[in-house]
Design goal:
With 227 residues, the protein is an alpha+beta fold. The protein contains nine helices and twelve strands. It has a four-stranded antiparallel beta sheet with strand order 1-8-3-6. The protein has a four-stranded antiparallel beta sheet with strand order 2-7-4-5. Bound molecules: adenosine-3',5'-cyclic-monophosphate. Residues 41, 47, 60, 72-73, 81-85, 92-94, 96, 133, 137 line the site of adenosine-3',5'-cyclic-monophosphate.
Length: 227
């Protein structure tokens, strides 16, 4: 594992900071381990800490009273979460669950706010990332409310391709596609619809499926079709 400072220097919102400042941040936080499937934050809890993923992957989700889950986002190494409650003083807006064994760097509210006041680069980088998340949420609202099954599934595939896909000569390769139930919760549809739609995409030659690996054969065309 990387040292705390090496890890922090790879975090986009901290990338403009000098080593001395990174050292201070490293000292002001702690690393905590979370086992796969454990809950890091519960929606409606009150919040007093900010989190950065040092290792692993988390799921941001909300559940309804009848236990239906909608996955808002998946976050990876160097991504942050927990900023919303710290900024607006309200309860946590979503539940955050480790989907792999994860190590999370945790800073308390006062230190986090101090960083925003002292380092405008950190504030601007935070705003840039929040803007990106708002754009992603806008796409999600559009897919959930306006698109048919193919459109919903395609939007989720494009979102995953954007986050973890590797592009080579116009082909995007996703090594580990989430489980079908997870894809369903991301797309706001059922597991059966995911299965049917993925097979229909494969039959049309738009994607290739090989276990948990998925290839989007012509990324630009696929984007154009489901924009
Ligand atoms: P907070 O509300 O403090 O706790 C839950 C966190 O989940 C929230 O801060 C954000 O960091 C994150 N989060 C909430 N909604 C979204 C979303 N739509 N996309 C990405 N991250 C989110």
């Amino acid at each position: 594992m990387l040292s705390n400072i090496e890890f922090l220097s790879n975090v986009p919102i901290f990338s403009e900071l000098e080593e001395e400042t990174l050292e201070k941040i490293a000292k002001s936080g702690v690393i905590q381990s979370f086992k796969k499937n454990s809950i890091i934050l519960n929606e409606e809890d009150s919040g007093s800490a900010f989190f950065v993923i040092a290792e692993g992957k988390v799921k941001i989700s909300r559940s309804s009273n009848d236990d239906k889950e909608v996955i808002l986002a998946m976050l990876n190494e160097s991504d942050f979460f927990g900023e919303m409650s710290l900024l607006d003083g309200m309860t946590r807006s979503a539940t955050v669950t480790a989907v792999e064994d994860s190590k999370i760097f945790i800073i308390q509210r006062a230190e986090f706010l101090d960083l925003l006041f002292k380092y405008p680069d950190v504030s601007v980088a935070l705003l840039t990332e929040l803007t990106k998340r708002l754009r992603a949420a806008t796409l999600k609202i559009k897919a959930l409310s306006l698109k048919d099954a193919e459109g919903k599934v395609a939007t989720v595939l494009l979102q995953i391709a954007d986050e973890v896909g590797k592009i080579r000569q116009g082909v995007v390769e996703i090594d580990h596609l989430p489980y079908q139930q997870e894809l369903a919760n991301m797309a706001g549809t059922s597991r059966e619809t995911i299965s049917r739609t993925l097979h229909s995409f494969a039959k049309k030659g738009l994607v290739e499926l090989d276990g948990s690996r998925l290839r989007i054969i012509d990324y630009e065309k696929f984007k154009e079709m489901f924009h």
